[in-house]
Amino acid sequence: MVVGQRVVLFQLIAVAVLVSNHINVQGLKLGYYHKTCPNAESIVWKTTYGFISRAPTLAAPLLRLHFHDCFVRGCDGSVLLNSTKNQAERDAVPNLSLRGYHVIDAVKSAVEKACPGVVSCADILALVARDSVSMIHGPSWEVPLGRRDGRVSSLNEALANLPSPFFNITQLKQNFAAKGLNMKDLAVLSGGHTIGTSHCVAFGNRLYN
Ligand SMILES: *[C@@H]1O[C@H](CO)[C@@H](O)[C@H](O)[C@H]1NC(C)=O
Ligand SMILES: *[C@@H]1O[C@H](CO)[C@@H](O)[C@H](O)[C@H]1NC(C)=O
Ligand SMILES: CC(=O)N[C@H]1CO[C@H](CO)[C@@H](O)[C@@H]1O
C-alpha cells in the first residue's frame, strides 16, 4: 500500500519523535563521535546516498530495519546479528521481508575504514534510517548517538516483542504500551511502517475478514 507523500511527511515527524524520545535515549548525545570519528556522520550520509539515489524505495526498508531493531532489546543493532542455527532476530518470521542489510554493511565498512572500531552498528542503523528518509524528501531529525551494540539476538524475543500483523487492536495497544508508545505512535508505525509498501497478507484480513 503506497502512502501519499503528505501523509508520509506528517507521520515521519512522529516516527522521529518516537524513535528519539521513547526508546533507548539514556546517555546518548548529539555529535557523540565529534572527537573520535569526526567524519562518521558525513560518511554515513554519503554512502547511504549512493544507494538511495539509485534505489529510493530502499528508504522504507531501512527505516523498518531500525524500527525492528529498536523493538527488540532496544536500539542495539541486534537485528544485524547472524546465528549459525537460524535462531537470531533476523531469522524470525517478521524478518523475512526485511531488506537493506547490504546498505548497512556498506556504510559500516566505509565508517570502519576511517575509524576502526569506534562507531556502533546501532548508531549506524539509526543514522541510515534518518538519512534515507530525508533523502526521499521526508523530514529530518536529530539523532543523539552513543548506542552500544548488543551481543544477543534471539528469534524468540523478536517473536515475543514485535507486533504481529494479525494482532487485533487490543493486542496492538498493549504491545506498543509495553514500549512506552501510545496510539498515535501505533498508527504511525503500522501498515507498511509509514512509507513504502506492504504485502496483502499483512492487512487483507482486516479488509475482508
Ligand atoms: C550474515 O549472513 C549474511 C547472509 O549469509 C551475510 O551476507 C552477512 O555478511 C552475515 N553478517 C555477519 C555480521 O556475519
Ligand atoms: C483480541 O485478541 C485477544 C487474544 O486472542 C482476545 O482475548 C480479545 O478478546 C481480542 N479483542 C478484541 C477486541 O477482539
Ligand atoms: C533478510 C534476512 O536476514 N533474512 C533471513 C531471515 O531468516 C531466514 C530464515 O532463517 C533466513 O534464511 C533469511 O536469510
Give an overview in words.
The longest helix has 17 residues, at 5-21. The chain has a single domain (3-207), classed as Peroxidase, domain 1. It is built from nine helices and no strands. 48% of the residues lie in helices and 0% in strands. The chain is an all-alpha fold. It starts with a helix and ends with a helix. Residues 86, 90-91, 95-96, 98, 101 line the site of one 2-acetamido-2-deoxy-beta-D-glucopyranose.
Q: How do you describe this structure in short?
A:
It is built from nine helices and no strands. It is an all-alpha fold and 209 residues long.
Number of helices: 9
Class from helix and strand fractions: mainly alpha
CATH topology: Peroxidase, domain 1
Separation of termini? Answer: 18 Å
Q: Determine Rg (CA atoms, Å).
A: 16 Å
Please tally the β strands and state the result: 0
Share of β-strand residues: under 5%
The level of helicity is: 40-55%
Helix and strand run: HHHHHHHHH
Q: Which architecture name does CATH use?
A: Orthogonal Bundle
Major beta sheet, specifics?
A: none
Small-molecule binders: 2-acetamido-2-deoxy-beta-D-glucopyranose
Mean pLDDT: 80
Protein name: peroxidase
Enzyme class: oxidoreductase
Family: Belongs to the peroxidase family. Ascorbate peroxidase subfamily.
Domain Plant heme peroxidase family profile: 27-209
